[in-house]
Specification:
By secondary structure, the protein is α+β, with helices and mostly antiparallel strands. Helices cover 33% and strands 12% of the residues. The structure holds zinc ion.
């Protein structure tokens, strides 16, 4: 199973975040990834990734301490003010996206690390 966020590279490219989304080559990655997944009978899911960066992947809340908006883009590590979990920004977002792929909001059991 492969789960990706539904970020639109064409929409983001028109914003001030254009450089980062184009640098990431998101479209160039996502399209062939979906083809490869289908060829291997791997489930490929695209989910709404809104708030995946701001939500705590441990308790599911959007705490005051999570990175928000453009000002929060530089925040790479943060601690959830609700449950105390320490997060790497990208790993936390990846866990939230994976959880959405599994159709749950709670942390996924059996996947302790990415
Ligand atoms: Zn938390």
């Amino acid at each position: 199973m492969v789960v990706v966020g539904n970020v639109s590279s064409s929409k983001l490219a028109k914003t001030k975040m254009a450089k980062s989304v184009l640098d990431a080559g998101w479209f160039m990655l996502k399209t062939p990834l979906s083809y490869k997944a289908k060829g291997q009978e791997v489930e490929f899911l695209e989910v709404n990734e809104a708030y995946s960066t701001q939500s705590c992947s441990c308790c599911g809340s959007i705490p005051d301490s999570s990175p928000k908006g453009r000002a929060g883009l530089g925040v790479r590590d943060w601690v959830c003010s609700d449950c105390g979990a320490q997060h790497d920004r990208d790993i936390n977002a990846a866990r939230n996206i994976l959880n959405l792929g599994f159709g749950c909001k709670a942390p996924v059991d059996g996947i302790p690390a990415l």
